[in-house]
Amino acid sequence: QLIYNYPEQLFGAAGVMAIEHADFAGVERLALVTGGEIASTFDHPELVKLGSCKLIEEVMIGEDKLIHFSGVALGEACTIVLHGATQQILDEAERSLHDALCVLAQTVKDSRTVYGGGCSEMLMAHAVTQLASRTPGKEAVAMESYAKALRMLPTIIADNAGYDSADLVAQLRAAHSEGNITAGLDMKEGTIGDMAILGITESFQVKRQVLLSAAEAAEVILRVDNIIKAAPRKRVPDHHPC
User: Fold this and answer.
1) Which residues form a coiled coil (predicted)?
2) What is the topology classification, in CATH, of domain 1-41+49-77?
3) CA distance 186 to 194
4) I need a labelling partner for 171 at 20 to 30 A (CA). Which of 13, 153, 180, 208 fits?
5) Quick check: 117 and 184 in contact, CB under 8 A?
6) Is the distance from CB of 153 to CB of 118 less than 8 angstroms?
7) CATH number assigned to the domain with residue range 113-222, chosen from the 4 options 3.40.50.1100, 3.40.50.10490, 1.10.10.10, 1.10.560.10
């Protein structure tokens, strides 16, 4: 909010730094990290819990002036500043960072992890294939297709890293068939590695949600019996001169 000159003079005379035009979301986060409370009125200021920090300073980042709080009560709190040549690069960086922070927050809530590098998908695909071999009827065909879809995830990992996915996935499948249940893709070396030794893990909750969302999307598509396409729009002749 805007602070008029006279109240600002009173704050200055009392040695209080007043900040105007602060958005409410920023004030909420500031109250959280400094350990203070938000006072909507001045009826009982003595009952309001005050927050604290070691230093408040105005800094320049690019062309913007920002208020920097350091030495807050919650020492883990921080602000991440992103720089980019274009707005599109900034938006992509923000989305990637948001996804990474969401995965981190989910892992803190549920610390269970699974082996990464396509190891978990190959284990699940192997288990589904074994169950399909003992399942009679058309359900076995659907189960085989699901196992094939699971094996596509290591393929995508290898393709994104620029390696020969067909060769690596074949090696990974052979390793799991031989009983090496911790085998996965080592994209640093472009080979099959031991995920337990390399320490490559993923969040269990994130992996679970990915599989559930993919299965639900596939189920919705399979329920579509027919697609009705609208007729193309007729072009209206333009009689206006250029």
Assistant:
1) none
2) GroEL (3.50.7)
3) 8
4) 208
5) yes
6) yes
7) 1.10.560.10
Would you state the structure tokens that stand for residue 126, as one six-digit string?
């192997």
